[in-house]
Amino acid sequence: MKTVSKRLLSLAIAMIIAITAAVPSFAVNDITWEALWATEYNNGVILFPGKDETEMNVSWYHSEYSEPKVIVSKSITFSDAKTFTGDCIETYDGDFANRATITGLEKGERYYYQCISGDFESNVYSFETDENPDEFSALYMTDIHVSYDKKDTEGINEELVRTAGLFNDITKEALLKNDDISIILSTGDQASEGLESEYKAFSSALAVKSIPVATTIGNHDRKGVAYKTFGNKPNEQKNATVSSYIGGNYWFTRGDVLFLVVDSNNASGIDHRKFVKEAVKANPDAKWKVMMAHHDLYSGRLPHRESENALLRILWAPIADEFGIDLVLLGHSHYYTVTNVLYNQKSVQPYSETMTDPEGTIYMVSGSISRPRDDDDIGLNDEWIGAWNTPDDRQIYNVLDFTEDSITVSSYYKGENDAFNKYTIVKTDKDGGHPDKISPLYNPIIRFIGTIYGFFNNIGVYDDLINKYGFDVDFFEIVF
């Protein structure tokens, strides 16, 4: 009786979330965001993509250990509901991260779900599957930087609420423009200090209850250990020689698109190439290959980081070339840029509004959500860059429209209706214009050196964690 009554009490919120997903004009004002924060912060319910469109991954927090369950139904009354169980992992903050996978999803359906852990029962939420998985839209943003103010120790942390609210507002605005958005792509630095409180705040946004988020490890996410137990990623790389202490690479598909989410903090080229090779082999029919990483590679907008970019390029560019990656989504520099079509670190086709069968890869960086930059003294690698914006301290987000034959990227400033930049990549067949894959002799040597560096870098990270957290972290878990 208790379970039924609590579920009925949450139906009003379920209706709001259902309306939000179906009609993106639903307004969330400041008061509503505060109320949403009050009900959602502690449990952190959030969706992540499953391995393909037939699955959805769910994650949430609870203060006690118990078997996590997700109850799912096509009816808001939960008639004919199915129950999916998952696993429960203790976090470094003493909470418990719960993860479960919903399977057997059908096209073009709305599903209602509720997360249960012991005596905890979440509100009822809903999500909708694509009618045609080959045609969908994605929201791409980077460097969201949900931030906990360590100086604000009394009451609700205002900076945490503000920065998470920005993320909430931008997802809402993007849904107003395109109600076909069915996935969010975040290329790193979801948090500023890697704290569990920051990921809980990130998960408080309304959209992530109905739209899955694919997150990438950024350098700020590595400042803590909370990302390790945050979220629920599909097809994670197993048995890597060296991986970051908070996670690694993973992949998923949506229709004809293979998404490769990689950790650019980790220099282990051997592991990265192996991961991409295995993912591509497992998806031989994928027409599109989109890679997500954190670090900027080509823009040169911050001259003092160009030496870092140069090292990253010699590691990642050969992998993109060898496996015919169409589009690489990046972050880190906080400056918007789109490259020409690049192959072997050279421009082989100029950037244009429509690029048909490009003979290489296009690399894109978006601006930061909470920390946009406004610097006049910046550099620019003119030989590589095809499009950029003038820094003006505004938030940027991007909507990617996927069809069987094209990807159209529309870039927006927060608060403006019209895109400030738009381009389309067209492929007339599976391979497009990608040249035959090459693997020069020096590439394996570079990957080997990067792997050795990654090993010793993790040892240094281990020392930093001990000093920062004051408790023992398994050495072999960190280094390997």
Secondary structure topology:
Elements (H helix, E strand, L loop, with lengths): L1 H8 L1 H12 L7 H11 L5 E4 L6 E7 L6 E5 L8 E4 L1 E4 L5 E7 L7 E8 L2 E2 L3 E4 L7 E6 L16 H20 L3 E6 L9 H7 L10 E3 L34 E5 L2 E5 L7 H14 L5 E5 L13 H17 L4 E4 L6 E3 L1 E3 L2 E4 L4 E3 L5 E4 L19 E4 L7 E7 L3 E8 L7 E6 L15 H28 L5 H5 L1
Parallel strand pairs: 10-11, 11-12, 14-15, 15-16, 16-21, 20-25
Antiparallel strand pairs: 1-2, 2-6, 3-4, 3-7, 5-6, 7-8, 7-9, 10-23, 13-14, 17-21, 17-22, 18-19, 23-24, 24-25
**CATH level 1 name of the largest domain:** Alpha Beta
Mean pLDDT: 85
- Report low-confidence residues grouped into runs of 5 or more: 1-9, 11-31, 475-480
* Main beta sheet: 7 strands, mixed
CATH architecture assignment name of the largest domain? 4-Layer Sandwich
Give the CA-based shape. Answer: globular
Helix content: 25-40%
Cα-based radius of gyration, to the nearest Å:
21 Å
Enumerate the strands of the largest sheet in spatial order, edge to edge or round the barrel: 12-11-10-23-24-25-20
Number of strands: 25
| CATH-level-4 superfamily name of the largest domain | Metallo-dependent phosphatases
As for the number of domains, it is: 2
Distance between the termini: 48 Å
CATH topology descriptor of the largest domain: Purple Acid Phosphatase, chain A, domain 2
* Strand-pairing-aware structural class: alpha+beta
Total helix count?
9
In percent, how much strand structure appears in the residues? Answer: 25-35%
Tell me briefly what this model is:
The chain is an alpha+beta fold and 480 residues long. It is built from 9 helices and 25 strands.
